[in-house]
Amino acid sequence: MRPEDWDRRYAEKDLLWSAAPNRVLVAEAAGLPPGRALDLACGEGRNAIWLASLGWDVVGVDFSDVAIGKARARAERDGVAADFVCADLLEYEPAAGAYELVLLLYFHLPAEARRQVLAKATSALAPGGTFLLIGHDLTNLTGGVGGPTNPEVLVTPDEIVSELPQLEIEKAERILRDVEGEDRPAIDALVRARRPVS
């Protein structure tokens, strides 16, 4: 989808997604000492704002101007300091080695474009930093519910692992996510990795 398509989607509702942070992020970030965090494809900023409330110095990036405007307004309402940038992730160049945590949650592109973004995410990690990806798994098409219907933009944990050769993989698995009003869960891919210290 183009930025203007997402702008329309974000403009239709007060919140397109939940105001609460992603529950898997909450679990995976537990125990990480606050540092600098980069939330790529941050949408309305729910995860970035949650991290900032815990003391993280957060930059959120999304190509929807409407989403970024909503994120900035919510951060101001909540009294939270977070930096939000409107940029296309295929063009955005994060500072190299600057972040202790880099997030890529529910961001779906065809493989070649995804690999470009993953390379930038990897380069943005500081030594010892944590990378976290959560996305709709390929098996969600037939066994889950919701999410994109184009298999070319869906992922598997093994596929993501193969695209992160410079990182140490800490976790790569499929997880189930309950969806309100549905009789079966969604199936997500979860990959957590760490940039080696040396």
Name the features.
198 residues, alpha/beta, single chain
Rounded to an integer, what's the Rg over CA atoms?
16 Å
What is the terminal-to-terminal distance?
39 Å
Summarize the helix and strand pattern as letters: HHEHEHEEHEHHEE
How confident overall, as mean pLDDT? Answer: 91
What gross morphology would you assign? globular
Strand order of the largest sheet: 3-2-1-4-5-7-6
Explain what the structure shows.
The protein is α/β, with parallel strands linked by helices. The protein has a single domain, classed as 3-Layer(aba) Sandwich (Rossmann fold), CATH 3.40.50.150. It is 32% helix and 27% strand. It contains seven helices and seven strands, in the order H-H-E-H-E-H-E-E-H-E-H-H-E-E. A seven-stranded mixed beta sheet has the order 3-2-1-4-5-7-6. Helix 3 links the parallel strand 1 and strand 2. The longest helix has 14 residues. It is globular, with a radius of gyration of 16 Å.
